[in-house]
Amino acid sequence: MTPRTRRLRDVLSAALTAAACLLLPFGVLAAWAVHGIADTGRYVTTMAPLASDPAVRGLVADTVGAGIVHRLADDRDLPPSAAPFVHSAVRSFTTTEAFRAVWDAGNRASHEAVLKALREPRDGPVTVDLAPITERVRHELADENVPLAGSIPVRHTRVAVLEPEELRGLRDGLRTLEVAGVWLPVSAGVLAVAGIAVAVRRRRAVTATALGTAVGGAVLGVALLVGRAALLADLPPGVSRPAAAAVYDALTATLRHVAWALVALGLLVAATTWLTRRRATARQASPRTAPAALPSPDPAVDPTEPSQAQA
C-alpha cells in the first residue's frame, strides 16, 4: 500500500467517523420522540408516576377544584364559604388509587386525540371530552362520602388541546420524525462501521468512534439540561414551576439514561481498545529471546572414559 493510499484511507475513515458521531445525538432524539412520546402506551406509562408527585397533584387539585366550585356556584348557588371544603376534598382525592386511574385515563384520552388529529388530514382544533373523567371523579368522591359530590354537574365539555395553526406544524414535524427516527440511527451505525472498515489502523479508528460516541452522548445530556432551564424560564404566569419540571423530567427520563449510557459505553470501549493496543505494542517491542542451545554430546564418545588430553 502506497503512502498516498494510506493517507486517503485515513482521511476517509476520519470523515465517516465524524459524520456518524454527528448523526448519533439527532438519531437518538428522533427515535425517542417516535417510539417514546408518539406511542400512547409508552406515554401513559411514562406519565403514570406523576400522579404521585406532590407538585403535580397540587396543580391538578387546584385546577379541578376551581372548576368544580365554579360549576356548583353557577348551578347550585354554592356559598363562598364552601369553596375551601371542596378544594380540600379534591386534594384528598388526589392521594387515592382512584385518582391514579383517572390520571391515566385523562392522559390516554388526550394523547389519542392528538395522535389521531396528527395522522388524519382534518382541520379544526384538537379537543378532549372531559365528561367521562368528571363522571368518574364524581363517582369516586361519592364513594368516599364527600358531601356535595353527587351535585357535581357532568357536562360534555370539550377542552381544546391543540389549535389548528399548531396542528399543521406538528403534523409535518411528526412525519419528519417518523422517517428520521428510523434512518438517522441506521445511517449513524453504517457510517461508523464503514469508517472502521476503511481505516488503515482499525484499533485507532475504533477508539475514535468510541470517543465520538461518548462526546455525542454528553452533548445530548447537556442539551437536555439546557432545554430544561429554558423551558422553566419561559413558563407563562400561573403555571407551577415544580409541576412543569416534574413533567419535563418524566418525559425525558429515558432520553437522559440513553445519553449517559452512550457516554459510559464509549469511554469503556475506548479504554479497552487503548489497553489492548498498548499490550500488543509492548509485545512487539520486546519479543522473547529463545535460550541458547547447548552442544549435543557425541554419541561415539563415552563420557565416563578419560579424554586423550587427560591421558
Briefly summarize what is shown.
The chain is mainly alpha-helical. It is built from ten helices and two strands, in the order αααααβαβαααα. It has helices spanning 3-37, 40-47, 54-76, 83-93, 97-119, 131-143, 164-198, 202-233, 241-251, 253-285, and strands spanning 126-129, 158-162.
How large is the count of helical segments?
10
Question: How helical, in percent, are the residues?
Answer: over 70%
Described by strand count, sense and barrel closure, the largest sheet is:
2 strands, antiparallel
How would the global form be characterised?
Answer: elongated
Low-confidence sequence ranges: 307-311
Instruction: Report strand %.
Output: under 5%
Q: How many strand units?
A: 2
Rounded to an integer, what's the Rg over CA atoms?
34 Å
Q: Structural class of the secondary elements?
A: mainly alpha
Order of adjacent strands in the largest pleated sheet:
1-2
Protein described:
The protein has 311 residues and is mostly helical. It contains ten helices and two strands. The protein has helices spanning 3-37, 40-47, 54-76, 83-93, 97-119, 131-143, 164-198, 202-233, 241-251, 253-285, and strands at 126-129, 158-162. The longest helix has 35 residues, at 3-37. The chain is elongated, with a radius of gyration of 34 Å.
